[in-house]
Amino acid sequence: MNRYPPCPLPWKVFGLMPHTDSDFLTILYQDQVGGLQLVKDGRWVTVKPNPEALIVNIGDLFQAWSNGVYKSVKHRVMTNGQVERFSVAYFLCPSYDTVIQSYKEPQVYRKFSFKEYRDQVQEDVRITGSKVGLPRFLN
Ligand SMILES: O=C(O)CCC(=O)C(=O)O
Ligand SMILES: [Fe+2]
C-alpha cells in the first residue's frame, strides 16, 4: 500500500519519481484522487481513476523476456495539494535465481538473473541517484 500525504508544493514535488518497474508485471489499484501518469508517444498522460478497474503494468523483465517487443512504460505519481492519496500495488516477480533471457535472435539484452538485475538497479541508484535499468543490459 502506498500513501501520498497532501503536499503544499504539488508543482515542485513528485509523489513518486519517474521510473519503470523492475518486476515482471504490476497490478495496481489507485483511489479516486488520481495522480498516476505514464509516458505515451513521448508525453505524460494522466491515468484516470476507475474504481472498477485494475491497472496492469508491464515491468522490465517482461520487456527483456519479450526481447523488447513489450515495453516497460515509464510512469510517475503527481502529488495533490489538498487530499491524501492511496494506491495498492502487487509486484509479480520471479525468484532471484531466475534467468531472464529471450531466445529471439538477435538478442537485444544479454542474459541476467533477476538478482543480478535488482543488485545492479540498487547499485546505480546508490551511485548515481537514479535507476539505469535495462539499458545496462543491452547486447
Ligand atoms: O501509486 C501509484 O499509482 C503507482 C505506484 C508505483 O508506480 C509503484 O509503486 O511502482
Ligand atoms: Fe511503479
From TrEMBL:
Gene3D superfamilies xrefs: B-lactam Antibiotic, Isopenicillin N Synthase, Chain
Domain Fe2OG dioxygenase positions: 1-94
SUPFAM superfamilies xref list: Clavaminate synthase-like
Name used for this protein in its record: Fe2OG dioxygenase domain-containing protein
